[in-house]
Amino acid sequence: MTDEAGPWLVVGLGNPGREYANNRHNVGFMVADLLAARVGAKFGRHKRAMAEAAEGRLGFGGPKLVLLKPLTYMNLSGGPVAGLAQFHKIPPAHVIAVHDELDIPYGQVRVKCGGGEGGHNGLRSMSKSLGTKDYVRVRFGIGRPPGRQDPADYVLSDFSPSERKELEFLVDRAADVVESVVLKGVEPTQNLYHGG
């Protein structure tokens, strides 16, 4: 069990720029934006990293959250993550990556600690820069591409109209999962949210 009193680094993985804003690959940014709104924080350019960052507390006197959206594009996300973790003295056990996940059906949010990257370049970059895979992942299911569509094209396309009907609810759920990990831990969060 980790020390709940220390700050947490919550990394929303995505690509900067308006053209990527509504892509499946950018769901991490969407969750980070919602978390910032919940803690009353605004994103601003960080002086020491190629990233936008925001800080706030979960509840009155609760744990400190450092929210991060790397501006380096997905494949190079690890540099800003490691830089901010070092700057705030946050250990990997208190780092949470929020990302899209092809291997989970759309509509499901899962959490795990450590493990492989499943071909996700943002996670691969984070693991390399942090020097470990032992950080928390909040995995937002986007499902597999239809037919023979290339997964790379699929993740860089926008959510479909039918998916968008549920998107706000699911981003909300993913933000709840992040908060639960910080306040309760990974295992209790899995027990709470992995039922459906």
From TrEMBL:
Biological role: Catalyzes the release of premature peptidyl moieties from peptidyl-tRNA molecules trapped in stalled 50S ribosomal subunits, and thus maintains levels of free tRNAs and 50S ribosomes. Hydrolyzes ribosome-free peptidyl-tRNAs (with 1 or more amino acids incorporated), which drop off the ribosome during protein synthesis, or as a result of ribosome stalling.
Catalytically driven reaction(s): an N-acyl-L-alpha-aminoacyl-tRNA + H2O = an N-acyl-L-amino acid + a tRNA + H(+)
Keywords assigned: Cytoplasm, Hydrolase, RNA-binding, tRNA-binding
HAMAP family registered for this protein in UniProt: Pept_tRNA_hydro_bact
Family recorded in the similarity comment: Belongs to the PTH family.
Gene Ontology MF annotations: hydrolase activity
Binding site for tRNA: Y20, Y73, N75, N121
Top-level division of the source organism's lineage: Bacteria
Subcellular location: Cytoplasm
InterPro entries assigned to the protein according to its UniProt record, in alphabetical order: Pept_tRNA_hydro, Pept_tRNA_hydro_CS, Pept_tRNA_hydro_sf
Gene expressing this chain: pth
Protein's UniProt name: Peptidyl-tRNA hydrolase
Pfam families documented for this protein: Pept_tRNA_hydro
Residue positions of the active site: H25 (proton acceptor)
